[in-house]
TrEMBL record:
The keyword RNA-binding does not apply. TPR repeats lie at residues 36-69. This is Uncharacterized protein. It comes from the Eukaryota. Gene3D superfamilies: Tetratricopeptide repeat domain. PANTHER family: AT04489P-RELATED (PTHR21391). Keywords: TPR repeat. InterPro entries: TPR-like_helical_dom_sf (IPR011990), TPR_rpt (IPR019734).
Length: 585
């Protein structure tokens, strides 16, 4: 049997050009009806094998040839529902119903009506699906009406679950949010021809505590695990990869756009699918086991978490002691910042009943390790007062030209002019300000102010360093938006944060940080005030080495003040002599 080749397959193809990529059976000159049936059969085949994108592709080709094919529309609607694209499936079903009504005013297809009700149900339009079943129920025969009754019972039960007393708190929270959005949208804005900055509503930034962030993250995992079982980790990975810079590289314009769209579409489909399942079976309606067995499991889970938390805290303390013995202060500082900022803040008092004691112990360990770093160097030479103070405070007095040359060469090789030191300071300042908003204990606030002051000192911002060091002692709080105003309006005689909580360790450390800034600026009088205050608090610690260190600093400071007065008196005497000589002339 010889097939007749289709001339349309090669129409418009010239000599020396590539032929279209067609299958063997597509070259044969089939009629449009035959092609439509074959494409539909291929769509059914790929639907049965699970290749849903290929199934949609061939059903689309069938509908391009015959747009009035209701069977192809119904099958494509079924495939889209399996792809979690229920709203698009509803449109296909409505189109098929309109085609039937145009052909026959009283036409009816029970398969299309059932498919429409299923698509409405999976689109979370429970009321519309129930109305569609009630309107078309009398048109079904008795045997086919059993499927309708089953769907009606299922949807009615879902509506009862969604409107039960268990879901009332969640529904009221959603209603309150919707009412707030409507009130904001209805606010009157006066239109003006010129630019009116005041008419623009400022979006309030929402600050969530670390505990609230952890709770929401946990609820998100539970939600995905409830409906997707073992795939919940893949959903979390898909959510994070959408904003991953390694996936969407700016230099690769076409591929990055395609991958970004692919990731967004995939995540949107998954979220639609989970919302559909949540509408069918709300999480709030899951009845927990009542009685003694439930209480037993709950208590065992709580004790297991408490025991593991207790072991982790002992391990943290052992690690801190080990770092102190090996004198690794920088590593100790980073470890404490990570533990206290990312682990302890998300533990409640129920899981960690000894949280206050642990926080005090960790910060006291770190403070004592930093105090032990203030020692009189054994190789200290007899120099001038300011140089001796800089050596005592371990402030570099000479520039290492080799390191400077290496750093300049490194900057020349960098493609951008971003200063890594300033970028690091921005991250540190944002972290300290965020932690300060939710710091509960005085010792933690004093520690954060001290670290923030040290960060300002590292970038040579001496005025802010002195003010923050004073805040560590005085205990004045600041807000993120009014930070600069609060710094300038701080009261130096406020209620002492460190002293009020008897955190004399961090009070002394903050005073010494301010002394470093005054030493670099050459403000000897203010330096004497801070050293005197630090000496009083060091006496309360009963630390002989620290008192000796501060006492030597005070003596050096006194010598520098005397030297400064002598220089000022000698300068004034020389000026008087010059004025007298000029008057005699």
């Amino acid at each position: 049997f010889v097939f007749e080749m289709s001339n349309e397959a090669f129409a418009g193809v010239g000599v020396g050009t590539l032929q279209p990529d067609l299958k063997v059976w597509e070259i044969v000159g089939w009629t449009d009806a035959q092609k439509s049936n074959m494409y539909t059969d291929w769509g059914i085949y790929f639907q049965n094998t699970g290749n849903l994108p290929a199934s949609v592709k061939y059903l689309d080709k069938a509908l391009e040839i015959n747009p009035n094919d209701t069977d192809a529309l119904r099958r494509r609607s079924n495939v889209k529902r399996r792809q979690s694209r229920a709203p698009a499936a509803v449109l296909d079903c409505i189109t098929a119903k309109d085609i039937i009504k145009r052909a026959h005013p009283f036409g009816f297809d029970h398969k299309i009506n059932l498919e429409l009700s299923d698509a409405l149900y999976e689109s979370n339009r429970l009321e519309d699906g129930l109305c569609s079943l009630h309107l078309n129920r009398r048109l079904f025969s008795y045997t086919k009406g059993q499927a309708v009754n089953h769907r009606m019972i299922n949807i009615t039960q879902n509506i009862k679950d969604a409107l039960s007393d268990v879901t009332a708190p969640a529904v009221y929270r959603v209603i309150d949010k919707m009412m707030n959005v409507q009130e904001v949208a209805k606010r009157h804005k006066k239109l003006k021809s010129e630019c009116d900055v005041m008419s623009i509503l400022e979006a309030e930034e929402e600050f969530l505590s670390p505990l609230e962030k952890s709770r929401r993250k946990r609820h998100y995992k539970i939600y995905n695990h409830r409906y997707l079982d073992k795939l919940w980790m893949d959903v979390g990975f898909l959510k994070e990869i959408r904003e991953n810079s390694n996936l969407c590289i700016k230099e690769f314009v076409e591929s990055s756009t395609h991958l970004k769209t692919l990731a967004d579409d995939g995540y949107r489909i998954v979220r639609t699918f989970t919302k559909m399942l949540h509408t069918r079976s709300p999480m709030y309606c899951r009845n927990s086991i009542k009685g003694e067995l439930h209480q037993k499991y709950q208590q065992e889970n709580l004790f297991r978490i408490q025991y593991q938390t207790r072991r982790n805290m002992f391990k943290i303390l052992r690690t801190i002691r080990s770092l102190i013995r090996t004198n690794k202060l920088q590593k100790l500082k980073n470890f404490v910042d990570d533990v206290m900022g990312n682990y302890v803040t998300i533990k409640t008092n129920r899981i960690m009943p000894w949280k206050f004691e642990f926080v005090n112990e960790v910060y006291n360990y770190l403070g004592l390790a930093r105090i032990n770093d203030y020692k009189i160097p054994s190789d200290m030479k007899i120099l001038t007062g300011r140089q001796r103070l800089m050596i005592l405070f371990k402030i570099p007095t000479e520039l290492d030209f080799n390191r400077k040359g290496q750093f300049e060469n490194l900057l020349n090789k960098r493609p951008s002019t971003v200063d890594p030191k300033s970028e690091k300071f921005k991250k540190q300042s944002a972290r300290y300000e965020y932690r300060m908003r939710f710091a509960k204990y005085p010792i933690e606030r004093s520690y954060l102010y001290h670290e923030y002051a040290q960060a300002h000192l590292d970038i040579n911002s001496f005025d802010a360093c002195c003010l923050l060091a004073r805040k560590s002692i005085d205990g004045k709080h600041f807000e993120h938006s009014d930070f600069a105003v609060d710094l300038m309006s701080s009261n130096l005689n406020g209620a002492a944060e460190a002293v009020r909580g008897k955190n004399y360790i961090w009070a002394v450390l903050s005073a010494l940080v301010a002394c470093k800034a005054h030493t670099i600026l050459g403000k000897v009088e203010k330096q004497k005030e801070m050293l005197t205050e630090a000496f009083k608090m060091a006496k309360k610690l009963k630390s002989i080495d620290l008192c000796l260190f501060i006492d030597i600093c005070l003596k050096v400071n006194t010598e520098e003040i005397e030297l400064k007065r002598q220089m000022m008196s000698s300068d004034s005497s020389i000026k008087r002599k010059m004025r007298r000589s000029s008057s005699f002339e």
